[in-house]
Amino acid sequence: MLAVVELGGNQFMVQKGDIIEVKKQDAEVGKKISVEALLVADAQGKEVKVGTPMVTGSKVEFKVLDQKKGLKVRVFKMKAKKRFMKNTGFRPSITQLEVTSIK
Q1: What predicted TM-score, i.e. pTM, was given to this entire model?
Q2: Which residue among 3, 35, 64, 74 is least packed, with the fewest CB closer than 10 Å?
Q3: Following CA atoms 6, 39, 42, 48 in sequence, which dihedral angle do they give, to the nearest 10 degrees?
Q4: If pLDDT is split at 50, 70 and 90, which confidence band does 81 have?
């Protein structure tokens, strides 16, 4: 089974056993969270259910594996001909999830 879910403002295509990294979710490590799917299909793509906006009765369950920081993102600002340059950066907080079931 394949499913398309929306987490943290982004859409992900997932299958059972996949591990994805999303924007920080409010859940403790080891807990389970569930989300409704936007689209559900079988592995061959013959039977597809598309939601408006969610597929009714669908549920994708995730297990929270880790809460960590991602790779550093550089932000560089410059104004031409004004000798203004500013270089800053940050490390976004991310949540690592594992797909446990798709219904």
Answers
A1: 0.84
A2: 74
A3: -170
A4: very high
